[in-house]
Amino acid sequence: MRFAHCEPVNFNGSIRMIHISNLNKTFGSSKGLSHINLHVAPGEMVALIGSSGSGKSTLMRHICGLTAADKGESLVRVDSEIVQKNGFISRDIRRIRAGIGMIFQQFNLVERMSVARNVMLGALARTSLWRSLTGAFHTDDKELALRALSRVGIGEKAWQRTGTLSGGQQQRAAIARALVQRARVLLADEPIASLDPESARNVMQTLRDLNQKDDLTVVVTLHQVDYAMRFCPRTVALKKGEIVYDGPTERLTPQFLAELYGAESDELFAAKTNTQETMPLPGSPVRETSRAA
């Protein structure tokens, strides 16, 4: 059920970087996603929140074409490219995914490789087979990887073995890899779920910095709403596979979340005691008033 006061919004006009219409996904007898309609404008930073099993990660997998929707009229489009339509993933999905940066909780880095080499893998979509197999990346891509690492604040770690980095540093390396992809959209699925509060804050600040300074469109799934309040002007809340709220994050007070989620709202604020030194209290969000120079 959608709350009457929570109709979907499009903050930046009619131009859409992500367009989703009538998306449904069933797993056996369970409904994973139900009639999802969502639009994200270029340059937005949007949080997807919800308790465990609400459909956040399932929705992200549909946006990047890792999972096909149920058969029937539906559409997922990213940067004017059709990712999937009517339950069928585009035959051109490999090329389309090259423009979509994907960040996951488990980092997806090769720990025995150097950090720089991992980041260079972001260029695979435009690299010939023999260069990919031998690791002979173009000089431009090597330089781009080093710049990307500096951009996310770990340039000095470039030639370290990736396995020696902390979890937060590895996640920032994964973000740098997406920059080497030259992605215009970044999908971050629970990027801070396994991190300590300080590392989580650093990763979220990196995402916000890229959003504000590079105009990168960012969609991030978060298990706790505290981080959405600090870093994301817009929040989409899911419950049992349905969008129950789509609007300004500043409205997500504990009382409002209790209205949306009932007893499950406690789970969304579970991290407050661990993050109270670095994060604002719910109901007192920090909002960005202008883009950084």
Automatic annotation (TrEMBL):
<keyword id="KW-0378">Hydrolase</keyword>
<keyword id="KW-0547">Nucleotide-binding</keyword>
<dbReference type="GO" id="GO:0015416">
    <property type="term" value="F:ABC-type phosphonate transporter activity"/>
</dbReference>
<keyword id="KW-0472">Membrane</keyword>
<dbReference type="GO" id="GO:0016887">
    <property type="term" value="F:ATP hydrolysis activity"/>
</dbReference>
<keyword id="KW-1003">Cell membrane</keyword>
<dbReference type="InterPro" id="IPR050086">
    <property type="entry name" value="MetN_ABC_transporter-like"/>
</dbReference>
<dbReference type="GO" id="GO:0005524">
    <property type="term" value="F:ATP binding"/>
</dbReference>
<keyword id="KW-1278">Translocase</keyword>
<dbReference type="Pfam" id="PF00005">
    <property type="entry name" value="ABC_tran"/>
</dbReference>
<dbReference type="InterPro" id="IPR017871">
    <property type="entry name" value="ABC_transporter-like_CS"/>
</dbReference>
<dbReference type="InterPro" id="IPR012693">
    <property type="entry name" value="ABC_transpr_PhnC"/>
</dbReference>
<dbReference type="InterPro" id="IPR003593">
    <property type="entry name" value="AAA+_ATPase"/>
</dbReference>
<feature type="domain" description="ABC transporter">
    <location>
        <begin position="18"/>
        <end position="265"/>
    </location>
</feature>
<protein>
    <submittedName>
        <fullName>Phosphonate ABC transporter, ATP-binding protein</fullName>
        <ecNumber>3.6.3.28</ecNumber>
    </submittedName>
</protein>
<dbReference type="InterPro" id="IPR003439">
    <property type="entry name" value="ABC_transporter-like_ATP-bd"/>
</dbReference>
<dbReference type="GO" id="GO:0016020">
    <property type="term" value="C:membrane"/>
</dbReference>
<keyword id="KW-0813">Transport</keyword>
<keyword id="KW-0067">ATP-binding</keyword>
<dbReference type="InterPro" id="IPR027417">
    <property type="entry name" value="P-loop_NTPase"/>
</dbReference>
